[in-house]
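testing teh design pipeline on a random one, pls ignore if ur not involved
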């Protein structure tokens, strides 16, 4: 089997799978090294296949059956704990946005999938001249988070609650404000 055929098979396996599949398992299936699988995944991503890496393995983004908006509040120093909470459950932080009474919704793409992405983001914030978007609204902000299933998002919500990061939706905040950004 050549590389192109293997990549087609990898896509087919990920498409049929109901959960993430580890690189090690894919390597065993195709009798190649894990590094070959990592390279195959990179090539598949370059071909615009949305394959996400989680702590449980690879999954097609289209297979991610659950997304949720979390309204959170914390200090800048607590950003690392907040973002690590999401990725430690294998979720992807798609964006950050705020709802400002004057300016409306201000949104930025993030695509944070793992702790390495968290560290890169925090380094860019620290070394840049800009401040986190949450500063516009005194620490209150939102994230669209993609998870494998609703149970995973429930676990994330419980952990955010324990950490004291969840914030209540106010009556002036439109419940469907994120839909206006599409």
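output:
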């Amino acid at each position: 089997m050549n590389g192109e055929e293997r990549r087609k098979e990898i896509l087919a396996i990920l498409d049929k799978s109901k959960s993430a599949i580890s690189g090690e398992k894919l390597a065993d299936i195709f009798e190649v090294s894990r590094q070959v699988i990592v390279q195959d995944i990179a090539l598949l991503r370059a071909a615009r296949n949305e394959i996400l890496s989680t702590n449980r393995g690879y999954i097609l983004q289209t297979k991610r059956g659950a997304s949720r908006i979390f309204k959170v509040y914390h200090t800048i120093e607590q950003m690392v704990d907040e973002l690590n909470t999401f990725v430690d459950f294998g979720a992807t932080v798609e964006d950050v946005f705020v709802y400002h009474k004057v300016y409306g919704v201000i949104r930025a793409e993030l695509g944070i999938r793992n702790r390495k992405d968290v560290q890169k983001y925090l380094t860019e914030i620290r070394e840049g001249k800009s401040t986190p978007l949450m500063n516009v609204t005194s620490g209150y902000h939102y994230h669209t988070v993609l998870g494998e299933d609703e149970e995973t998002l429930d676990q994330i919500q419980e952990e955010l609650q324990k950490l004291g990061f969840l914030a209540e939706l106010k009556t002036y905040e439109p419940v469907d404000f994120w839909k206006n950004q599409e």
